[in-house]
Amino acid sequence: MQPISPLPLSAAALSLAFSASVAASEAPQSTTVLEFADANTLFVADSDGAKIFAYTLPDVVPATESQGYNLIGLGAQIVEQLGVNPFAISYHDVAVNPVSKETYISLSVRSGGEKSPMVIKVNQAGDIVPLDLASLASTSFTLSDTPDDSVTFWRDIPASTFTVTDMDYVDGALFVAGLSTGEFASTLRHLPYPFDGSASASSIEMFHTVHNQTETRAPIRAMSVVDLNGTQTVVAAYTCTPLVTIPSADLVDGSHVIAKTVAELGYGNTPLEVLHFTAPNDQYQPEEYVLVINKERDADLMRVADLATASTSEGLSEPVLWGDAGVETTSRPLGAVLQADDQDEQYLLTLKRNLDTGDVDLVSYRKGAYFRLNDFVSEYNFPDYAYSEEQEFYRTFQNLLKVDAGYPDLQR
Description:
Layout: E1 16-19, E2 34-38, E3 41-46, E4 51-56, E5 70-71, H1 74-82, E6 89-96, E7 103-111, E8 114-122, E9 128-130, E10 138-143, E11 152-153, E12 157-158, E13 166-170, E14 173-179, E15 186-192, E16 200-208, E17 213-215, E18 222-228, E19 231-237, E20 242-247, E21 256-258, E22 260-264, E23 271-280, E24 286-294, E25 299-303, H2 304-311, E26 325-326, E27 330-332, E28 337-342, E29 347-353, E30 360-366, H3 392-404
Parallel strand pairs: 16-21
Antiparallel strand pairs: 1-10, 2-3, 3-4, 4-10, 5-30, 6-7, 7-8, 8-9, 11-12, 13-14, 14-15, 15-16, 16-17, 18-19, 19-20, 20-22, 22-26, 23-24, 24-25, 25-27, 28-29, 29-30
């Protein structure tokens, strides 16, 4: 991402305002990034209103088994239920309830130059329930020194849409990435929850190898908080796609933090998600991974062990104009994904564009595989194909993926 034009400067230190409760009449101006603290607490970022809402949800029924999502054409069902133009919907984020495994989707509906923010709940059966946010008990945190619409990108993208670019809740605190109006616009905030008025905001600097320069304006686009060598660390990705590490202990209020660039994942790309989870490795043993899901390229999978080693190394400081560098990654074919979340021990959940129909699907990917067997036709699909004895593993695994995709009758 090329450096953006400086936003209006503020002489005051970055600050945050606390609101103990939210009146029932107050509604978010936008619903963008979502994050769960627990089964009953959903954070909703309001980038337009420069606020973070924490909504208290009703009690949920715990999921009794791991069940993948296979909702093909969900977008058409949402359009029908809401009674809106299919081209009027913008999808912003997904978050899986950690107990019920229901999916929450933030979106906005445009009409006549106005937009209506919403959050809807979807389960594996395809039931769609819009949330009545005004009826839910909530608290909020107001972010100050945030960008307004006096600065735009590509003529019609307001800087305010980058007020909150990602959130991650860990150990009683909410990490919030986005822009501020300070001299160093890229900002990482740390908010204890329940909100008590205390918080920190740090400006972030990093070396972008593809651009061969230090950058302080472009915000973190996706992140996850990971334990590296016993140190709580923010693993963050920027547009175009440098990956950096930031020890959370460095996020002292008002500090200017220099992130360590540990990988260059490729130019001309926007990272959508940085997910941290455990999955089978090549020896079929559980191992910790970080997966960067991208908008313009395949996903990048890397071992947490390799990130831990890189976090103690020198870091990238030389230009890498066209190639990848740093932490070793493997490519995974997660194409056309709009947003994603870690669903459970077996699955990743994705909201993705169906490249055959143009519709939006809500589907799960099995960890360790990272593809859906029904997305293509191969040699194995021909009815006269016979598996050899050496291919017994592939036959068994493909049968599992057929069940995941909703084709149990095609098992062989």
